Amino acid sequence: MTSYKIFWLLATLMCLSPGASPAVFAAKVPTDWYVVPERAQDFNISKLTDDEDDLEEAVDELFTAQGDSFDEMLQQSHFGKESLSGWSLSVIKGDVGISAGGDIGILALKGKIAVETHWYPRNQGRKADSDKYHIQDSEADLEISQLSSPSEIQEKVKRIVDAAYYSGKVWDPVRMEMELLSAVNHVGKMMQNPPDTRYFMWTPSKFRLEVSVSAEGKVLPFMSVGGDIRVRIDWKILPGNYTKEALDNESARSFRELVLILADELRYVSSGHAGYRSDTVEIALGMTASGKIGIAKTSFGIVGKLFFKVNHGLSLNSANESESTYAPLLVITDTSYGGILPKGDGSFIQPVSREALWLNPGMKGEVYEINRAQLRYGLKKAHDMAGFFVGRAQRNSQRYWYLKKFKTAYEMSIGGSLSLASLSGKVGVSIIYAAQ
Fold it and tell me: How far apart are CA 270 and CA 282, in angstroms?
């Protein structure tokens, strides 16, 4: 019996002219789509009005070019249904980027992805097989939960350390094992008491700890630097009972409040767009050495991602209110923004604290409190922007390769707004939409 597997192809088209932007189609997105408010003074802010036709035409051309290329490629004999010794082409991924100047196009340079497109074949004859191929995030190096015993965790961590050591990329396995176990145990204390969100529209499914390990075995927040290795550890979230131990743990309290607030506010991205519906949300998290946890707006302080899955069994109106409406949602940065972004009363947003970042105490971070009403506005805005791309995808819905999933990425403002990630942006929130 033939075993079909996913064959990944990164669809990347290079710029056609020297010195061109990363966009291959001449159109710009409105500045209020990709410029966070704290950088707005450097731009003439525009909205989707006069340039709407140009942008729609450019995105239509972009998706059409991708679809035409994929359909033509499939006609070649070596991409047939049963070729390459049992492998078949089942999923194609494309990347759309936005330059610092707002040009949109297929990503041809290293940088943050604004929209990730996932193309699937429309093959009714193999529908039962193709339904098995769901887009997954990168695989974790190990999976654990509250039910994992200390000895089980230590054994799994030891296997990662041994692999890193024998690869020749880590010289001090003793230090790596000690620091990695310390980080895992810290996350375990943080997640010892997650709230019960079974009756919310969105419920957390896992927290992914992402760290870098240097050749000396030092564990740091994930950074894309040469020489270091990356370790991903998925901690499955199992709702538990509120305990006295969690009350005495600052990171557990902070994590619990964060989950409750996000589970409540994410209802505003739960509705669909022309046959697509939100499916998964990823939140990049930062943490201070004192245990404060917030959405990360940083390149050097991200400690992991919190994954939410939608509960399609609930209606929008049945979602519960958060049990904590007073607790602020935090944003943690590694850059000073205080005194830049004005508030409605004429004053300026200031950080509530400036303190060392967890796993990287040599770097100071700023902690800002987000107004939940502004976050709600930001989520609605993000949902509307995603709707634009979904609408353009419908024009390519009849071809053999069709857009089954979108992943849209956003940068978080210190005031709570969301903007599409530009190439040099800092992704804090990602929302995945799937065709129904």
Answer: 14
Which residues does residue 98 pair with via DSSP β-bridges, in sequence order? 104
Contact 333, 355 (CB under 8 A): no
Cβ atoms within 10 Å, residue 158:
14
CA–CA distance, 436 with 343 (Å, rounded to integer): 40
Domain for residue 346, yes or no? yes
**In this structure, what are the phi and psi dihedrals at residue 49, rounded to the nearest 5 degrees?**
-130, -85
Taking the CA atoms of residue 119, residue 124, residue 129 and residue 135 in that order, the dihedral angle to the nearest 10 degrees is: 20
pLDDT digits (tens, 9 = 90+) for 196-239: 887 888 999 999 998 989 999 999 887 655 557 889 999 998 76
Predicted pLDDT at 53: 73
CA dist 361 and 355 (Å) reads 8
Q: Would you state the structure tokens that stand for residue 394, as one six-digit string?
A: 């419908």
Q: Whole-model pTM?
A: 0.85
Question: Which secondary-structure segment (H or E) carries 66?
Answer: helix 52-74
Distances (CA, A) of 76 to 72, 73, 80, 89, 421: 7, 6, 7, 12, 36
Give the separation between CA 272 and CA 397, rounded to whole angstroms: 16
Count of CA atoms in the C-beta half-sphere (13 A) of 415: 21
Residue 423 lies in a domain: no
Of 57, 235, 55, 247, nearest to 148 by C-alpha is 235
For residues 413 and 258, give the distance between their C-alpha atoms in angstroms, rounded to a whole number.
Answer: 17
Q: How many domains does the chain have?
A: 1
pLDDT value, residue 10? 39
Q: What is the DSSP letter of 140?
A: P
Inter-residue contact 261 to 322 (CB < 8 Å): yes
Question: Which residue shows structure tokens 């450019």?
Answer: 58
Instruction: Using the predicted structure, report yes or no on whether residue 139 has a pLDDT greater than 90.
Output: no
In the chain, the N- to C-terminal Cα span, in Å, equals 30
**In a domain? residue 196:** yes
Nearest of 354, 327, 310, 315 to residue 257 by alpha carbon: 327
pLDDT digits (tens, 9 = 90+) for 378-431: 999 998 888 888 878 777 666 777 888 889 999 988 888 899 988 777 889 999
Tokens at 345, concatenated: 């009363």
322 within some domain? yes
Beta-carbon contacts of residue 237 (< 8 Å; ≥ 6 apart): 145, 191, 194, 204, 205, 206, 207
Q: Which domain holds residue 243?
A: 142-268+279-371
Q: Which H helix or E strand runs over 315?
A: none
**Distance (Å, whole) CA 305 – CA 341:** 26
Q: Are strands 115-121 and 302-310 parallel, antiparallel or unpaired?
A: unpaired
**17 pLDDT more than 50:** no
Mapped onto helix, strand or coil, the DSSP state of residue 82 is coil
